[in-house]
Design a protein that fits this description.
about 250 residues, alpha/beta, Spore Coat Polysaccharide Biosynthesis Protein SpsA, Chain A, nine-stranded mixed beta sheet
Length: about 250
């Protein structure tokens, strides 16, 4: 079984405002719910784990159930079903890597094959993109969506250009990033033992690279944007309106 992990415990401080950006609504639905739906709709994903802030751990799943889209378990708190797929809600950690470890531990008994980690605020990813990166990870052990750089890239120090970098070798990482379960678990444990600073644990493929493992690249799309600024939110809203047939959200 392939599993999706969506770390959604961040505060979204760079976005501004009192509501973390993953809970801001697009077309009347929280961004995070749109993101979850992308993986529910993807046939190669068997289960989903969402890491939430402590103060949203009960509220957000209940809101999904109240909408008629999710059925929560009475016997197993933090678990539910969406369109027949298992979904787990786990407490997020202080850092993204802590949330990933919590999620990996929850699904260990499912014996996951590939784990796809995806940003909570990339709600425009497609089933085809998810499937492509998982297929490549099944082949190589690790793969990420990424975009080739189109601008000229300069290395700058103290306000001065040090050199111009060959942009043919530069790719901009996106998510999902997909890995064999054991490889991602090992990479996270190694990062913890090494006490890596938080700034180095925000990209899961970097942790895997530290083990010496090869990470393959699957070309992504500019529409798979990460909502980081208010301007990104406006763009995402426009894309949802233009492609309602693809991204529309319907309660079951």
């Amino acid at each position: 079984m392939n599993v999706a992990i969506i770390p959604a415990a961040g505060s979204g401080a760079r976005f501004g405002g009192q509501i973390p950006k993953q809970f801001i609504e697009i077309s009347g639905v929280p961004i995070l719910a749109h993101t979850i739906k992308r993986f529910v709709d993807c046939s190669v994903i068997g289960a989903i784990v969402v890491a939430l802030p402590e103060d949203r751990l009960n509220e957000f799943p209940r809101s999904l159930q109240d909408s008629g889209w999710c059925r929560l378990s009475d016997e197993r708190p933090g678990e539910g079903l969406i369109d027949g797929k298992k979904i787990f809600f786990v407490p997020g950690g202080a850092e993204r890597s802590d949330s990933i470890r919590n999620a990996l531990q929850v699904v260990e008994n499912l014996q996951p094959g590939i784990v796809a980690v995806h940003d909570a605020v990339r709600p425009l990813v497609t089933s085809e993109q998810i499937s492509a990166v998982i297929e490549k990870a099944e082949e190589t052990g690790a793969a990420i969506l990424a975009l080739p750089a189109t601008d000229t890239i300069k290395e700058v120090e103290n306000g001065l250009v040090v050199r111009t970098i060959d942009r043919r070798r530069i790719w901009r990482a996106q998510t999902p990033q997909a890995f064999r379960y054991g490889l991602l678990m090992e990479a996270n444990l190694e990062a913890r033992v090494s006490s890596l600073p938080p700034a180095m644990t925000t990209d899961d493929s970097l942790l895997v690279e530290r083990l010496g493992a090869a990470v393959a690249v699957v070309e992504g799309s500019v529409s798979n944007l990460k909502i980081t600024t208010p301007e990104d939110l406006v763009m995402a809203q426009k894309l949802f309106e233009q492609h309602a047939d693809l991204y529309g959200f319907k309660s079951s």
